[in-house]
Write a structure and sequence with these properties.
about 500 residues; alpha/beta; Alpha-D-Glucose-1,6-Bisphosphate, Chain A, domain 3; TATA-Binding Protein; six-stranded mixed beta sheet; six-stranded antiparallel beta sheet; 16 helices; about 20% strand; globular
């Protein structure tokens, strides 16, 4: 039994993240593992433990496994760097009670973190997170039960496996990998030194299709790169695509649950366009029907497609803990959010950046058009759409107080018009979203994982988007603007 200094662990939009050696320490990781073990105290099913490619991630994963075994839980410890969606798939494949992933997802290299996945493999809903936080707080007061790794192995309750073959087999059930391998596609995969390294190549090579991988080696510092698949963080991949030697660029974040897409001309396809492309492809080309679940930060293009193909579109707060739950409730065919995470019926109700990249490759094959041509077809169906997001960073100290001040100001000064357009309705359950009479929208919300304020807008032109973002920034009383990466 280890006594501990009291601290507070809070899970954000999807998990707990902290700076390594500051708050992300072995002691705190053990406390969270104890919290999960206590939450699962009545379970007899195993618990899956996996990790990404970050600094000492496998050692932190071992600490988690040791605590779980010491508390009487059976553990399936994944024996290598594994993408978060592959961990989620392993949870469902092995009928586990849940799983823990040691990862900080897309955050920069100084961070690590923990995601908890329930037995369905998706993001934990708020009531589960609250219980784990409560049990973790008790662990800080009462101590953690643990043992050494060798002792855990000796109990016979710890099994170590490679889950990637099962994951790849599942991907083959979602897309026709044989057809993709034989089509002669030329794919550039920007792995961003993350957990998805090697997997696009493993899925697609073996025929005339070729995959060139960038930054596929393990580098816990990410080579100075921010491991998030958006245009400003992958200039090398975008330049490579501009050579004309590739049909598709696929990029994945640190734990490969997100995707970034680059077309054959080197143009970055933004996340709202990507989700609309997936919806159009599933509805029009694959002939599927079913609900679509999107976050409040995603595109009105989805609503237009829903009307055109007579399917219901649900708008949820940010986070797959909301999106995945609604997908399961409605048997939705597609779910997604602005951060580049997409989920598909028949898989897990959770983001999968590897499957998303393969699905985009299948789209190119099935339409028989270059990606730029498919995007043009989308615009023919739904009209022109422009989108942008500004991120404003605050000091970590005092962030919660600043957040409350900004929210209080917005509640007290809710606008009736913005940038010359009338506000038709307002949504306030996740920040402040204003729906305008010209069909555009603008949203301000505070991040759940980083000290950031984000302002989003969608309209018919880029100029109008910028007008709306500036107007809402002024309305919130915040003028400082620093471009940083996306979060959940």
């Amino acid at each position: 039994m280890h006594s501990m200094m009291p601290t507070t662990i809070r899970f954000g939009t999807d998990g707990w993240r902290a700076v390594v050696a500051d708050d992300f320490t072995y002691a705190n990781v053990r406390a969270v593992a104890q919290g999960v073990a206590s939450y699962l105290a009545s379970e007899t099913r195993p618990v899956v433990v996996g990790h990404d490619s970050r600094f000492c991630a496998e050692l932190f994963a071992r600490e988690v496994a040791q605590v779980l075994v010491a508390n009487g839980r059976r553990v399936i410890l994944l024996d290598r760097v594994t993408p978060t969606p592959a961990v989620s798939w392993a949870i469902t494949r092995h009928l586990a009670a849940g799983g823990i992933v040691v990862t900080a997802s897309h955050n920069s290299a100084e961070f690590n973190g923990i995601k908890y996945k329930p037995d369905f493999g998706g993001s934990a809903p708020p009531e589960v997170v609250s219980e784990i936080e409560r049990h973790t707080a008790v662990a800080f007061e009462s101590g953690v039960t643990t043992m050494t790794y060798n002792e855990a192995v000796a109990t016979g309750q710890l099994e170590s496996i490679d889950s990637l073959p099962d994951f790849l087999e599942q991907l083959g059930r979602m897309v026709d990998l044989d057809a993709l391998r034989g089509h002669g596609l030329r794919v550039c995969h920007e792995a961003m030194y993350g957990a998805g390294a090697g997997l696009i190549a493993r899925a697609l090579t073996g025929g005339s299709t070729t995959v060139e991988e960038l930054h596929g080696e393990r580098n816990p510092g990410f080579g100075g790169m921010h491991p998030e698949p958006i245009d400003r963080y992958m200039p090398e991949a975008m330049e490579r695509m501009k050579t004309g030697n590739f049909d598709l660029g696929i990029a994945n974040d640190g734990d490969a649950d997100r995707v970034g897409i680059i077309d054959e001309t080197g143009r970055y396809i933004n996340q709202l366009q990507v989700m609309a492309l997936f919806a159009m492809y599933l509805l029009e080309k694959r002939g599927l029907r079913g609900d679509i679940v999107r976050s409040i930060t995603t595109s009105g293009m989805l609503d237009a497609l829903g009307e055109r193909f007579d399917v219901t579109v649900h708008e949820m707060p940010v986070g797959f803990k909301y999106i995945g739950t609604k997908m399961m409730e409605t048997d939705a065919m597609l779910g997604g959010e602005e951060s580049g995470g997409y989920a598909f019926r028949g898989h897990i109700p959770e983001r999968d950046g590897i499957l998303s990249g393969l699905m985009m490759a299948a789209m190119i094959v099935d339409y028989g058009l270059p990606l730029s041509g498919i995007l043009a077809h989308l615009e023919e169906l739904v009209g022109p759409h422009a989108y942008d997001r500004h991120d404003i960073r605050f000091p970590r100290d005092g962030y919660e107080e600043r957040k409350e001040q900004i929210y209080a100001r917005m509640r007290q000064n809710a606008p009736s018009d913005l940038a010359g357009s009338k506000v038709l309705r307002t949504r306030t359950d996740d920040g402040f979203k204003f729906y305008l009479d010209d069909g555009s929208w603008v949203l301000m919300r505070m991040s759940g994982t980083e000290p950031l304020m984000r302002v989003y807008a969608e309209a018919t032109t880029r100029e109008r988007v910028e007008q709306l973002i500036t107007a809402l920034e002024n309305q919130s009383g915040v003028s400082e603007r620093i471009a940083v990466g996306a979060s959940e």
